[in-house]
Predict the structure.
Amino acid sequence: MAKTIIKAFTDAGNVSISAADLDLSGQLQLEDGTVAAPSLAFSLDTNTGLYRQGTDILGLVTGGVDRLTINAGGNITINEDGLNADFRVESANDPNAIKVDANVDKVGVGVAGVPQSKLHVIADPVTSGIYNINSAVTFEKNTASWVSILTSNAGASVVAFADAGSATSGLLVYDHADDSFRIDVNDTEALRITANGSISMIAAHVDFTPYKMQTLAAGNYAITGNESIYIMIDADNSQTNRSFIVETNSPNPGAGTECFRVSEAGNLTYPGGLVGKTNGSVAAAGHVGEYVASTITTATNAAASGTYKALTSLNLTAGDWIISAQVCRLNSSSTPTASVNTTIAVSTTAASSAGTTENVNASTEVCEDAVAWYGANGRSVHQVSFHVSISVADIYYLNVFTQFAAGTPQWRGQLRAQRIR
């Protein structure tokens, strides 16, 4: 029984192939067709199919729009008309292995949503993060995100920063041959870190505004600021005759005022002298070595028997101080009460021992008993010394306590303090 293989529609020039067993010994040659009416199409969808765009150029069309083109050189173009149509490639486990988002003109690898930079690669989405809108490339992983540059054991891994004038304006280079890392700036090596961690700055000037590191000569370096200079001197460039020097009052090495230097042997010298007491002189207020004193040279009557008398006081600012006190009892007609001692109290309360804590912020000390009251020359001298550390300014009083039966004992005294911090 005969079958209908080809139906010809002569009114429109179309050919409809309705049988699956058509056998041709030659070519099935078609007209070129157009994008709106491809020469190889479907009877129920005539604007979807294949057509010849030009010599050796094949076009795939859907809905009368070019979707994919293969030219004579084998080059494949997708979405040649630049329509808002995405391109997506699925892998076995990732439905978004590759995606071109036409709406934002960006490419994603593993990106389910919208890529956030021109190339956005996601290995594992970050649960919470902020994308930088200036990034051309974004690499994203929720745990540790690595970018690897792999080469041989003798090769070098390089990140180059290029511009219109140079392809190597800036470089980050890891040399696997000697395990060194270097930074090049303006086509010149500026810094190198060796395998043992040593750092060398090759440039003559390294600027840490407002400070700048300078190479003065072989083995001699300086870090300079507006008014301060730190100099490392290796006089013979052999690392055996080095000094570290600090200068002020000039930004030029060697032109400032030397504050101090440390020699190769570790000797420390201060050409201008220490800020503090170094040679018996009194330091300025607030500096180590500051000395203050209050002296009572006029005979001062004691208070009533069994009470304290404030002889003098000192105003001390915050810091650590060594406080010492000395009192002298003048010969008088008073008679001390037997077996009761005279006491000196340096206290933060006037005419009292309140606030007295030995070796902390005040001190009391028993001076003598009734037998030794007058001393060999009819006078008695008593002293006390201790350390205090105070956080705010306070007043320290020199108080004297005496018990006597008759007469009025008289005292002279001195309260003094020297700053140690």
Observations:
- The chain has no helices and 34 strands.
- The chain has five domains: 6-78, 87-141, 156-201, 205-269, 291-419.
